[in-house]
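Discrete fold record:
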Amino acid sequence: KIHIISEHTKQCVNQCPANYEAKNSTGRWECIKCKNCPRWCDGGVINSREEAERYKHCTHIHGNVEIRVSESDISPVLEKTMKDIKIIEGSFKVSRSFALVSLYFFKSLEEIQNVERNEFSITVMENDNLQKLFPRAVKVKNGKAFIHYNQKLCMEEIKEFLKNGNMSKPSVFDVSDVTNGNKAACSKDELDFNITHVYGRFALFNMSDYRRNLADSKDEDLNSLIGYEIFYREITEEQYEAQSVSKYEGLDACGSNVWNVIDMRPNKAGYETSGRTQNNVANWYTKPEIGQLRDLKPYTTYAVYANTLMVPHLATKASGAQSPVKYFRTDSEPPEEVDKLKVHEKTESSLSLRWRPPAKAHGIIDHYEVQVELIQMTNTKLKNYCVNKIQKDSTEEKPEEPKNK
């Protein structure tokens, strides 16, 4: 059936989206927006793009859900197909999914019910690059958690999930800090990062020198900090207004990344040399690190954040720092030229013009300025040659007639 979404869009679809229900009250099928109209789908194993597509527009899942994906660049597909799921009636498992960095594609998930009361309601196992679980608090009704061999998943992230899910404290056999987060930077340190100046096509930033933190601790090797990563991306006006961008959206371990990345080495001139001793660090690395974001678009909204790059075996306790996400808009610039300027109608005293707006406005177009130039016509052009015929010049020489031989 072809359904019409009965709002301003009047869009025709083969299947109503989530939070709409199909009704045939006027002789044609329409998608009517509803508040409590679950779209039930059967659970299963999601191990390919095709399997993921089965869950598009689903809000409630009968049975268990297992994610086991090995394909690269699959995060955008999961973000499109998993975003409406609210309830999983059975248990949930994600395992051996090398590409996944987070489970943030479950934007609406509220509850894992485990109605069959299996021993484990959630299993997270052998995901080498998984760093974040769900983007919101997910309640777990029955069963325990089994979380092992996720080398980049910090224990703080796991504990927060268990607390939000009202789950009991797990045993070391079910969840272990030995097998989870052993290759992650699980520091809570916050990196001070700020956008200082914004222009049309570039922006300036500064951030605190993390070597000062290392120097203050006195037990850390300053060489354990090898650099910084600056992540930035374009965002929508809605994201800019809500300031709701997640660092893990659109990111997987196989190259799919909506974030642009700049690598920075620590500034060699970051400290004052006078009085620099191991016991006096008052002047060590007090100057901020500075840099630029280049090749930006005029009058465009962006999100940006930074984190440190550490060598774990050189650090004693420090594991790095990360800044919150910052937001900014670039300055406007003159727009590109209008396209397809045409005279639509004309009279003796007026002209009507039509044109297409610039392909890139580089800002908000408030109004257009139309310049008209009067071109004086010469007497030759004004002369009516039907009345005043061309007069031959009497002085003009006649061609010679051929002579008879």
Q: What stands out?
A: Residues 136 and 378 are 77 Å apart (CA to CA). The chain has six helices and 23 strands. Residues 272-278 have pLDDT under 50 and may be disordered.
